[in-house]
Design a protein that fits this description.
Rossmann fold; 260 residues; alpha/beta; 7-stranded mixed β-sheet; single chain
Length: 260
């Protein structure tokens, strides 16, 4: 990943997560991710750029084998306090994952592709280690919130000054450039402020909110074709040997005569 969160960034982000209004936003994003991935009991999920563990929480206790990676040791320390031994945590960069091909059923990059040094390589690695699906949760480049973050960054330094925003079309293009013509689906959440919980739930589940190209948070799911690393094997076979026969061949006519 291009930008690694330092201690101050990690603490500030965790404090942001713990605020009531922000937790509602995180819940909406996590619900979208869970509904699109829909992992089953016993399946393996890798969270790439797991940060403080917010995107891991909705899968805990569901029988999913969870693994999280992040380049920031400070983020991993916070995540460890939240998830304990229920998640296998590793320090690693998205562009160089320490796992074998097809090690997981699913991989998720939730709000982490924005900080990757090489987004295409990060997605390539995710598609390499996940055999059934790769989910990207991103801040929509064309959303009003993204515009507000960019304006705010002019007057005040935030972590979003270091982020690279993507549109839904750009992420789909990255997927197709890596995987070819594979099934890709997307949905969004809008994060409308000043609404009650019931109204948010009703609106966020509407077709308009879920399919708005201007939604604040976009979830894009690609279903890659499994790839396997093959090694040619040398087959050994015994050489054919001619066995000499001392008996004279007997034809059917002779056998019939002998049978009289």
């Amino acid at each position: 990943m291009g930008y690694v969160f330092d201690f101050n960034d990690a603490v500030a982000y965790d404090q942001w997560l713990n605020k009531d209004g922000n937790q509602r936003i995180v819940d909406l994003e996590n619900r979208l991710m869970v509904e699109m991935l829909h992992p089953r009991f016993g399946e393996r999920l890798l969270d790439i750029g797991c940060g403080a563990g917010a995107s891991l929480m909705p899968f805990i206790g569901k029988g999913i084998q969870l693994t999280g990676v992040d380049p920031s040791p400070y983020m991993l320390d916070i995540a460890k306090k939240k998830v304990g031994h229920r998640v296998d945590l590793h320090r690693a960069f998205a562009e160089d994952l320490p796992f074998e091909d097809n090690s997981f059923d699913y991989a998720a990059l939730c709000l982490s592709l924005e900080f990757a040094d090489d987004p295409r390589k990060a997605l390539e690695e995710a598609c390499r280690v996940a055999k059934d699906g790769v989910f990207v949760g991103a801040l929509n480049k064309y959303a009003l919130k993204a515009f507000q973050r960019r304006i705010r960054g002019i007057f005040k330094t935030t972590i979003y000054n270091r982020a690279r925003f993507f549109s839904i079309g750009e992420i789909k293009y990255l997927f197709t450039s890596l995987l070819g013509d594979v099934p890709i689906s997307w949905q969004t959440t809008c994060h409308f402020p000043g609404m009650t919980n019931s109204l948010i739930d009703r609106f966020e589940n509407s077709g308009f909110a879920r399919k708005s190209p201007f939604g604040a948070f976009a979830g894009i799911l690609a279903l890659p074709v499994p790839r396997f690393r093959t090694h040619p094997l040398k087959l050994k076979s015994a050489s054919a040997q001619v066995v000499a026969s001392t008996s004279r061949p007997v034809n059917c006519a002779e056998k019939k005569v002998e049978g009289r």
